């Protein structure tokens, strides 16, 4: 039997195929965070809120207020008078500003002796002998002393009539009364507590050294300077970074010892930017001019802090 194909059979549509059921949605394809993630984020924000509030009130707001105040002439009592950049123009024309800036640089260079001196003392004290804890306490004592106390002690030490320094030399030398020696005498006094602080940092780092690396270096014959340079110091790199950062910031904001020992004298030869700022605000009631000094000092510190923060983040990455 022959089968004929008609036009109707050609145009007939094929039966529809059954559609597959939709795939279940993956767990990570939900829109927005899960309720648990939202609760965790809310809890984190609540914990951070007090610290953020304190930083905003005691750090950010004073910085912005100082920048705003530096454009005004104000004695703290009368109305403020807007003077624009006049305070900065006067500041950059003042000889005392460059003297203070030079002294800050001297502080910065000589104060960096504290980390290596602290490391040397820490290596000496990192021994398991009887009575070493008492010796460590004696070396750490300068750091817990007030800056005023340290200043008074070294003022007596430098006294040309009865001071111990005059007894050692056999004759009196007016260290704090000579414009050429005053800054160096104050820095030497400031190194005493700063070295103790760096010593504590390095003692903490020495207790966390990798003993396996030390033992392997000893088996390879490393000792003395080779052990220190190639094995110990690389492991102390984070401690060294922290000691240098703290030391540089301390050098830039030096104030208390200068106030106690010389008052910026003689003839403003030992003043620094922090004391110059205080002197203009408290003695001469020039609040706006003092704020301009604070802004310049903040800018100098900001450059250094940003540089080291970027370096630290790069090392962590």
Automatic annotation (TrEMBL):
Its main location: membrane. GO terms for biological process: transmembrane transport. It is found in: Cell membrane. Residues 15-24 have a biased composition (Pro residues). Keywords: Cell membrane, Membrane, Transmembrane, Transmembrane helix, Transport. Residues 100-306 form the ABC transmembrane type-1 domain. The keyword Cell division does not apply. Pfam families: BPD_transp_1 (PF00528). One of its GO terms (cellular component) is plasma membrane. Residues 1-36 are annotated as: Disordered. InterPro entries: ABC_transporter_permease, MetI-like, MetI-like_sf. The chain crosses the membrane at residues 43-64, 105-125, 137-158, 181-204, 225-252, 287-307. It is a multi-pass membrane protein. Residues 1-11 have a biased composition (Polar residues). Belongs to the binding-protein-dependent transport system permease family. This is Binding-protein-dependent transport systems inner membrane component.
